[in-house]
Amino acid sequence: MRLFLVIGLLFISLQKIAAQNTDVTKRSSDEDLKQFASSIYKYPSFAPGKIILKDSTVTDAKLNYNRVLGKIVYLDRVNKALALENPETVSEVIIASDTFYIYENSYVQKYTHCSKVNLYIKQSLAYIDNSMPKDNLEPVVISSGGRVPYSNEDEKKEAKGLEKYSQFQLTNEYFIADSSMNYLIASRKSMLDLFPSAKGPLKKYLQQNTVSFNNASQIEKLVQYMDAF
To answer: For the whole model, what pTM was predicted?
Structure first.
């Protein structure tokens, strides 16, 4: 299956989330481009999983998470990779030991497993095509269509088509949600809003501990601490 992406629009959409951690890496060799292709999927191979719909229907399948599409991908009967459509009907998706939920028509992975509040992460991968560097200029984002590998089968054929002297952008977006699955961008304000009766302990924790809302480990410790209130 081939996928044509409007690279400029994808890049712009990634800028709209405030709480995010971005890693931009230059690519200048065939080996690096292969690494980009292999980074499209979260898991190195399709893993056993379950698709659980809101009507309680459960379907077993081999699944993966596509960082470029922001979608769950499954293998059909002939091992062709297809995107799972109609996310509004999905309750949750389990891949290996990870659980994904729907937020704004895309998938977020549940990172913690507390009773009152939890951390969720959305990963995105944007391929930024640019011409050969000149005088250390910033990369030029191409707004016309671009092609990237979509399935394992396409990966070998398409990787050579990705141009050298390009960049990709891996973005982690962090959200916190209460037991009612109300999602908020991870931030100091979000935590204060979720725990209005525990502002004192929360502020004290933030004063005594380093908490970056772009750091999963630090947010995880904060969430675990506040879950006791």
So the answer is: 0.70
